Records
---
Amino acid sequence: MADATMDSASRLLHLDDLRIGQRFASSTEAVDERAITEFARQFDPQPFHLDPEAAKLSLFGGLAASGWHTAAITMRLNVRGGLPIAGGIVGLGGELSWPKPTRPGDVLRVESEVVEISPSRSRPDRGTVIVRSETRNQRDQVVQIATMKLLVPRRPPAE
Amino acid sequence: MADATMDSASRLLHLDDLRIGQRFASSTEAVDERAITEFARQFDPQPFHLDPEAAKLSLFGGLAASGWHTAAITMRLNVRGGLPIAGGIVGLGGELSWPKPTRPGDVLRVESEVVEISPSRSRPDRGTVIVRSETRNQRDQVVQIATMKLLVPRRPPAE
């Protein structure tokens, strides 16, 4: 995997290649009931994420994916081409909100935008970038907004 | 699962039972290399989360769990008794940071504290609560801080 990353590094973006307002779009991913309940069984075993009948009686009004599942799918979409950062996507933290839940049958995609670029003062080989990633379903409804600070390498001087 | 939640509802906390500064502790969970690489393969397929050798050469200096894996384990620990909220743990969003990565062999636990309580003005049956959850490893190092806003039901008047 390290080699694969290095092989395609020429089209991956360093800090120097990014500009504020730059936008990226991921591919899409369908989320079915089985994926929702499987993630929930592992990491968020609550009735409204596990059981369609119990979920009807909950405040979700039907089966809803764990917000952490939506976050994990968003990461997968960004890693698989949605956010082509050299050195990978290394998050330090950020803000997260889930305006609507992900539902069975949803087809998700991520649209990301660079909102801040800060070269490091102490480390000339890197900097941080704040990226706002909106995860949307097939009806263009936003299911997650993640505004995350990423560690991004600068282009090596030799290149 | 719905019945299990209802059966134990008498010891679960409603908005009216919470106070600022109230603290909760979860059980512990060991995280091994297989769990780290399995989560990464599914949701965050990057060399430093997948391959111990590639990870040595990365800025992590060794295999590190995806931050989203740490977040998902934190949720599981909170759902399994770490945060006994009536009606379940329903997050609207919040802030997340990963001061250190989770490593193979780490034993994680979560300490949570209520930092804000806001009864809804429009919906007398609910409110929101901000909870700060620190996820710590066996050396007491903080691997994640999550400050999340949760939807919490009020105690029904009939009770």
---
Amino acid sequence: MTAATTPDLLALDRAAQDLLFRAARTANTFTDEPVTDAEVAAIHDLIRYGPTAYNGQPLRVLLLRSAAARARLLPHLSSSNRAKTASAPLVAVLAADVDFHERLPELYPHRPQARDWLADRATRVEQARFNATVQIGYLLVGVRAAGLAVGPMAGFDAAGVTREFFPDGRHEALLVLNVGRPGPGAWRERLPRLGTEDVVRTL
Amino acid sequence: MTAATTPDLLALDRAAQDLLFRAARTANTFTDEPVTDAEVAAIHDLIRYGPTAYNGQPLRVLLLRSAAARARLLPHLSSSNRAKTASAPLVAVLAADVDFHERLPELYPHRPQARDWLADRATRVEQARFNATVQIGYLLVGVRAAGLAVGPMAGFDAAGVTREFFPDGRHEALLVLNVGRPGPGAWRERLPRLGTEDVVRTL
């Protein structure tokens, strides 16, 4: 199979393939054009249809819009990530709601007892983290669907961010995300990707 | 903001929004039309461009095509998932490669020392699981981009599947996925989704 024919095997049109994956790139600089609450709501309205176990939807998004809120985040980032986060038009902390099960009688109404299956906190933390992380995959695609660029940052102190922003003890921070429109010199060279033969095996 | 205007705030065209999220549904039955290796390769060729930390791409996909391989999986599934998995045209076990760091000198060439930052296995397992799970989000979107339906199944014994299919000790099973074209009665009623006000907060 050649690179020219592969996109044509997909039902998704080529422009959408490019927007979401093939031409999309992690941005390292941003313009100062704001990302509006309406854009954030439109992204959530799209990606909330992605599947999660028990339809639990444990992902929570904390937007750090005030200067004071952003200043509280910076000390928890690795030093190489501070400058770009300080200048991104929107910074979001993505977290898992460990008590997502409380909403299951409403979200999974045909099995209201699912809430009780998740009475054990350790089980629930694992499920919340896993499903919120799958939803992070949907969200990164969704930000690009809005014509915006993302800069996901794993280089941060997750326990510190959890303590700083979620003192309620019911959330765990998973990822920090910069969002905006790419600025000058936003792109690094595209890094190599694994081939299908490296990733997919058959039994 | 009304449901009519939200989709128009996105750069992604409405047909693609429907294909990937709004009209897409978890399938509970499938036709017997096969899912080809070329389709699987086309899906991977799309979603491999999604971002991962250190460009590490730890997701691995094991396709269970033979009757013998599928028979080995069934005892590890919750009883309610066995019938639909036995009849799906394609069943995949999604796993994290715990030793993904071995490829970093090639995948992240500007920081070849990244491999050494991940020398500690516990750190690596956490990173491999997190990033492979984000990639599962991309993959579920990618299967739909191919015009196929997915049935993700969290109801399985992950430790048992890891032992059964990855005796090398370098992989951890994360999710079992049924893939195919929807059969008769494939859809349950759409379950409710959280509103943006439940998910997004601002500081």
